[in-house]
Amino acid sequence: MIGKEAKSTCSYCGVGCGVVIKKNARNRIEVEGDKEHPVNKGMLCSKGMNLHYVVNDTSDRILYPEMRWSRSHPRERVSWDDAMNRAAGVFKSIIKKHGPDSVGFYVSGQCLTEEYYIANKLTKGFLGTNNIDTNSRLCMSSAVVGYKKTFGEDSVPGSYDDIELADCFLIAGANPAWCHPILFRRIEKHKEENPNVKIIVADPRKTDSANFADLHLQLLPGTDVILYNAIGRQLLKKGFIDKNFIRNHTEGFKEFREKVMELSLNQSSKLCGVPAAEIKKAATLIGRSKGFISMWAMGLNQSVIGSDKNFSLLNLSLVTGQVGKPGCGPFSLTGQPNAMGGREVGGMANLLAVHKDLFNEEHRKEVAQFWGVNEISPKPGYTATEMFDALEEGKLKAIWIICTNPMVSLPNVRKAEKALKKAKFVVVQDISHKSDTVDFADLVLPAAGWLEKDGTMTNSERRISYLEKHIHPPGEARADVEILCDFAQRMGFRGFNYNNTEEIYREYTQMTRGTNIDISHLSYDRLKNEGSFQWPVPEYRHAGTPRLFQDRKFYTPSEKAIFNIPASTINTSAKPDSEYPLILTTGRIRDQWHTMTRTGKVARLKTHYPDPILEINLVDAYLNNIKNGDVTEVKSASGTVRLRAKVTENVREGVVFMPMHWGKQLHNDLNRANNLTSDLVDPLSKEPDFKYTTVSVQKY
Ligand code: SF4
């Protein structure tokens, strides 16, 4: 419990800022930035510095289990015993009748690593199905494919400390000024102190990040591969390549060269909407730099060609030899605080823990042996969107949703709503009644939130932090691991009788021994006493690993990094036509987080954007007779939203933008961006196409 002051890590984004928590004279929590923390050095963004409001205001919290015996009855308060017996009873009977693949878990990048580990062990090891996926599927799965295919494993090569050593940044499909603010502050400060540092932003919108950049490549949505291949072509043409690195440490260069030479600079320029001179300038800035870092987020990942976009960007680091050295490397910007930790313990339907491969029989045997079970099913589980499709088709009967709000965040959300209504049994384990998904639950389980439980998280730079329990959860809320272990034991499974979270962590770390993410020598004691560490930490007293691949040996069979050739160069999931002539992209705003169940409670965070708006270009507004502030009706093949227009030059002609945060509970369902998006996904990563929906816009 909090004495004079205590430390923790911000529970919002993957930057992973350190916070200091205090209690004031009125026994209320106060939060400030941790000046000693290596990531943020005392800084916090608007979301982080208002975390205490979220903790102190418990008015929306789910305080006790609630259950309904049938869909025609309201939910009523029940004891934990009744709730857990019912959960176990229903799961047992569904599995007996329909087999293990008829149940599934949908979890979250906000779960702590121990929670993720237990949910995976329970599902893959004991329930006998790989039907466990996470909202990270909506966020980082294309980057995972990119890393695995390029470096052999899902491994972020660099560190935030490489920022201050780099002299050229390509920020692609990301707006870190709003979405990863403390990281962006470090880039800004570095540039202010070193004016020779160059920043390139590739984004269809003029964001705050783009406004700060030396060069804004305002590409057409869906043409990222064309742009990065054109930059690659120019790098080759001007000789800005690292021949030694390519020859000795990569495979596939010939195919890369052939691919990028397919289109002339002018052809590419025409297709991606970026002037040839700007492409040349970008290539020159990258080619002449001593330290080149590419950073990317949802603009690349959330696409039917998200994996291809990742390949084309990663290829730029390979062709310039800018990986495995100080001040360089590709750097994916993780959205959620523990998406990385979740990936480490295999928290997706097609992954196994410690980067082992579900499709590798030996790996499945190793994991099964470690957990003391007969086998792990070789059949990949349903991914996030597949899970809801399977519910609708009646293949999946029961779903357990933990710490995520799919009724706002899933694409084509009305279809997902129908799917959840068709489910035989829905469990929602969450902290807040403000989650729209709670409305669909047959069983609601109150979970502990930030500061109310302990465990670890991994941020975007592979940095593992221990988060201590500082306060008691309200009402009867329990830590997620406790709930899951309780359920596992009621199902009759052995191996879930832990005395504390540390025992779970220790079990997981033993699993990492000898792997590329070895943290078998990183104990809770070290995390508590010495602070956070970047994996791997393979030996006793090891100080952690800020940078991977310094020996230029990668995790592929040949130990070489691979140039991957994008199968598609342009997003063709939809084509603007006379019915839906504009392209909608969705994304975040500065002061809100995900579906607003936490940030939506803080009055001062609503002042920036009190309501959702539609950004529309001056020309498109004029052609549709729309003025600033008019209520517009936006339609796509999936649905409709109504919201006010913000007429702006920040989006290019033919493109509109809408924030993704608002849901039904906090507003009305006509403000929900995912009424409009389609449920198409990338064939490799299964990540949805949030950044490319054709729509019409009219004055309402
Ligand atoms: Fe929290 Fe991210 Fe803001 Fe840091 S940048 S304070 S981790 S939301």
Automatic annotation (TrEMBL):
* One annotated GO molecular function: molybdopterin cofactor binding
Supply one GO BP term: cellular respiration
Residue ranges constituting the 4Fe-4S Mo/W bis-MGD-type domain according to the UniProt record: 3-59
| Claim: Transmembrane helix is one of the keywords in the record | no
Q: Which cofactor does it need?
A: [4Fe-4S] cluster; FAD; Mo-bis(molybdopterin guanine dinucleotide)
* Superkingdom per UniProt: Bacteria
Listed GO CC annotations: membrane
Part of the whole protein covered: 1 to 700 of 1173
Give the protein's recorded name. Molybdopterin-dependent oxidoreductase
- Family membership, please give it: Belongs to the prokaryotic molybdopterin-containing oxidoreductase family. NasA/NapA/NarB subfamily.
Q: Which organism is it from?
A: Christiangramia crocea
Q: Is Flavoprotein included in the keywords of this UniProt record?
A: yes
